[in-house]
Amino acid sequence: MTAIDTGVQDLGRRHPEWKPWLAVVQEILREAANPIWEALVPARTEPQQSKVPLLAGARLALEVRPVRQLVEQLIGTACRSGTPKMATLEPVLKAELDVAALFRASLCQDGKHAKETATVLGADPEAFEAVAALVAVPFLLACNRRWASAKSVSWMEGYCPVCGAWPAFAEVRGIERSRYFRCGRCSGEWQAHCLFCPYCGMTDHNELASLVPEKGGATSVIEACKRCLGYVKTFTKLQGSPAARVILDDLASVDLDVAAFEQGYRRPQGSSEALRPADVCKALLAALEGSEGRRRKRKRDQTPDAIGLGVKRDLLERAVVADPNPEAFEEWLLNYLRTYATPELWGPASAMARAVFDEWRLAHSLEEFRIWLENGAPSDDTKDEKPRERPSS
Q1: Which of 193, 195, 314, 343 has the most CB atoms around it within 10 Å of its CB?
Q2: What span, in angstroms and rounded, lies between the C-alpha atoms of 274 and 297?
C-alpha cells in the first residue's frame, strides 16, 4: 500500500461521508505517477522572469489520448461512487467531449467552461466542475518536478512560481520558523514573507490577524487579512509535506476553512492571473463616473477632487490602451510615472498609481469587489445623471 492510499484511507475513516470524493482524488494522485505526463512537459533552459510563473506562455504539445483516458477514468470513478450528483455524470462518458478544451479550462481554472459543458450534456454542473478541475493536476505535478531547478530562488510573490495558483496553505518549518507557501494544484513550494497577505500584498500587521481554532492548537492557525478578507491556513511542522500529500493535507484541514468562512474570510477562486489590468481599469473608469457624481453634489471647493479624478482618469485610460501583461503591470505603472508630463502633479499621480495597483490586486482576492467590477461598477451616484459629453482632445 502506498503512502497516498494510506492517507486516503485515513481521511476516509475520519470522514466517512467523503469516501465518494476521496475515490476520485485517489485516482488522480495515482495517475500523477504515470511517466507520460512528464513527457508532455516542455523543456526550459532560460531563467525565470520576475513575477512570471513558469507555465505562463509555455507552448504545450498536448496529446489527446492520455487526457481522454484520464477523463474517462475520473468520470467512471465518480459515477460508481453512489452519490446522486456524481451519477448524473454518466452521459459524459458517451458524449463526444472536446477533451483538449476541457484540459485547457482545467489548466486555467475556468470553472465556467465546465459548467456550460455539463449543462449541455445534462450532467450536474457542480459535480462536473469539481471533477474537471482535477484533469490538469497530473500534468501540473509533472511540471513542478521537471522545472524544480528552473524556479527562481528569490521568488517571494503571493502566487505559485510554477503554475500561478494561489497557495493552498503555508508551512512554518523547523527551528528557524521559515515560512513557505504550498500550491494545491502543482504542489509547488516557495518561501514567503512572515507578515504578508499573498492576495492583496498587505504587510501592515494591524491589518493582519491570526485566528486559532479551539481544536487546532498552536500548530494550526488561520492567517487572515482584514483588507481583502482572504486567508491562508498555516501549519507549524519540522519539514514540508511531500508533493503527493499536499492535496490530502489541504482536505484534512477543512475544519480551518470552515472556521475562516464563519468569520467572514474567503479563499479567492481561480488563478492569480485571471484578470488583466486593462479589464480592471475599464471597470474602474466606469466607477469613476460615480465619483464624478458625488463630486458635483458637494458644496465645498471641488478643485482638488477634480484634479485627483482627472489624474486617475488619464492613468486608467492609458492602461486600457497599453493593455500591459499582469506580471508587468507594476513596472508599467513605474514607467508611467517616469514619463508623466506634468511635474507639479507627480505627487497625485504617484498616489493614484499606488491606488490603482492596490485595486487591481483587490479584484483578484475579494470576490465581492470582482463581481462589482464585472457588473460595470454600479453606483447610486450615477443614477438620474444625464450623460455628459467630454471635450475632444
Answers
A1: 314
A2: 36
**What are 199's three cell numbers?**
492576495
Pairing of the two strands 231-237 and 167-173: parallel
**67-70: Cβ within 8 A, 24+ apart:** 67/99, 67/100, 67/102, 67/103, 67/135, 68/97, 68/99, 70/31, 70/135, 70/138
According to DSSP, the residues that pair with 190 across neighbouring strands are: 181
Q: Tell me the chain's radius of gyration from C-alpha atoms.
A: 23
* CA–CA separation, 99 and 120 (whole Å): 15
Q: For residue 137, what are the CA distances in angstroms to 30, 55, 70?
A: 11, 13, 11
What phi-psi label fits residue 314: left (phi over 0), alpha (psi between -120 and 50 degrees) or beta?
alpha
Tens digits of residue pLDDT in 334-390: 888 887 767 777 788 888 888 888 887 777 666 566 656 656 556 555 444 443 343
pLDDT value of position 368:
60
Any bridge partners for residue 172, and if so which? Answer: 179, 236
384 burial type by CB count under 10 A (0-12 exposed, 13-18 middle, 19+ buried): exposed
| Nearest-angstrom CA–CA distance, 73 and 78 | 9
What was the pLDDT predicted at 300? 46
Q: What is the pLDDT of residue 366?
A: 60
Residue 219 phi, psi (nearest 5):
-85, -10
From 137, 254, 230, 239, select the one nearest 189 (Cα to Cα): 239
SS3 assignment, position 223: strand
Helix (H, G, I), strand (E, B) or coil at 99: helix
Largest CA distance in the chain: 75
CB 213 within 8 A of CB 256: yes
CA distance 4 to 30: 8
Cβ count near 169 (within 10 Å): 24
The kind and range of the H/E element at 347 are helix 346-365
Low-confidence residues in the chain, pLDDT < 50? 294-298, 300-302, 382-393
